[in-house]
Design brief:
By secondary structure, the chain is an alpha/beta fold. The chain is built from eight helices and seven strands. The chain has helices at residues 18-29, 59-73, 98-126, 137-141, 147-166, 185-188, 192-199, 210-220; strands spanning 9-13, 33-38, 49-53, 78-81, 129-134, 172-179, 232-235.
Length: 242
């Protein structure tokens, strides 16, 4: 069966679990050739998928892997940046350590910069591309007790706005997705009080699901979503209404 994603080459980071794995599986089901990138071992997604274990905060390693993917398939059509960490949470600013803040920015922001910087030349060759950065409602509104995470995701949103404008005439769209709390292993590892604080702010009074995230991501990176760029899509159960 031919679909709009048939023969499209997609790169998904943070693909070992959570949002990244769900999105990778969704794109694979829709016919895409998927490259799964993660520091941890990646699950077997299917016969049209390849996996790379790498540290996404290592710029040289990222550029090497992206170029391997491009050379192997002759193209890169989609990038989804889903890798992320929360760092220390449920603490106030005077308790934040600079080392933790730097680590969160390295994974959440710098890695997304490295991957998008590396794939853009491949997309420019074909005048087509879809880049999706997974941000967070914390980057819009700020979550108390999550300075490093909130600030890093705000930086991702800022980068999305800039990149969307820079490549608006090239056939490449760059957008972000800002979820509220999604049921993932990362959220399961957070202090219960922090999760409750975030969930209480959601009018639907529940976490989002991986299936809902994957559905929205598929829409954003589809060929038909071509007149929206530099935008941050909401997925917050009614929390963010702008």
């Amino acid at each position: 069966m031919t679909t709009e994603f048939s023969e499209r080459v997609a790169v998904v980071t943070g693909a070992a679990s959570g949002l990244g794995l769900a999105i990778a599986r969704k794109l694979h089901e829709q016919g895409a050739l998927v490259a799964l990138l993660d520091l941890n071992e990646v699950a077997d997604v299917g016969d049209r998928a390849v996996a790379f274990a790498l540290d996404l905060t290592n710029q040289a390693a990222v550029e090497s892997v992206i170029n391997q993917i491009g050379e192997r398939f002759g193209r890169i059509d989609i990038l989804v940046n889903s890798a992320g960490i929360t760092g220390q949470t449920n603490i106030k600013t005077h308790e934040v350590t600079p080392d933790d803040l730097r680590r969160v920015f390295e994974v959440n922001f710098m890695a997304s910069f490295y991957t998008s910087r590396a794939v853009l030349p491949w997309m420019l060759k074909r005048n087509y591309g879809r880049i999706l950065h997974i941000a967070s409602v914390a980057g819009k509104e700020g979550n108390a007790g999550m300075l490093a995470y909130s600030a890093s995701k705000a930086a991702v949103i800022g980068m999305t706005k800039v990149q969307g404008k820079e490549y608006a005439e090239t056939g490449i769209t760059i957008n972000a997705l800002a979820p509220a709390v999604i049921k993932t292993p990362m959220v399961d590892a957070m202090p219960e009080a922090q999760v409750r604080y975030m969930t209480d702010k959601i009018p639907m009074k529940r976490c989002g699901t991986l299936e809902e995230i994957a559905h929205m991501a598929q829409f954003i990176v589809s060929p038909g979503t071509g007149f929206t760029t530099g935008f941050t899509f909401d997925m917050t159960g009614g929390r963010a209404t702008y």
